Amino acid sequence: MMDSTTTQAPFQVIPDAWKNLPKMDEPQYAGTEGFIADVYENPAGSVMCSGFFELKNTDEPLLYEYDYDEMKVVLEGEFLLENKETGQSMVARAKDAIFFPKGSKIYFSTPSYALAFYAGHRDASLL
């Protein structure tokens, strides 16, 4: 039973947040088709941000450098993941969970299409 004087932030639901994601149009992503948006940016003072990342097939992989720890869950399609610094290369498919430690430099590509949900330990200004 909760104390009647205790206040707690309400939980939130945002329908269809994965639709119409904005294109990653910064110069370092030229030649790629990545789309991303935070759905929750440090809600209720949390140290986490979360949202959706979508990637379409292009000849050029998308390089993302992580300044924070992040987890992703692949919802649709598959990501080809490569860290050229460590030589690690893996495929993540629908329902796979991924962890990228802070400092990772990951090349993302896909044979056709991929959609993921992510949660990162970061301030909203880092995206």
3D architecture notes:
With 127 residues, the chain is mainly β. It has strands at residues 33-41, 48-56, 62-65, 70-83, 88-93, 97-100, 105-109, 113-121. A hairpin with a 6-residue loop joins strand 1 (33-41) and strand 2 (48-56). The model has no long low-confidence stretch (mean pLDDT 93).
Short description:
Helix content is 0%, strand content 47%. The protein has 127 residues and is mostly beta strands. Strands 1, 2, 3, 4, 5, 6, 7 and 8 form an 8-stranded antiparallel beta sheet that branches.
Mean pLDDT equals 93
**So how many helices?**
0
Structural class: mainly beta
How do the helices and strands follow one another from N- to C-terminus?
A: EEEEEEEE
Helix-residue proportion: under 10%
Low-pLDDT segments, ≥5 res? none
- Please report which band the strand proportion falls in: under 5%, 5-15%, 15-25%, 25-35%, 35-45% or over 45%: over 45%
Gyration radius, rounded: 16 Å
Shape, please? globular
Number of strands: 8
N-C termini distance: 39 Å
How would a textbook summarize the main sheet?
A: 8 strands, antiparallel
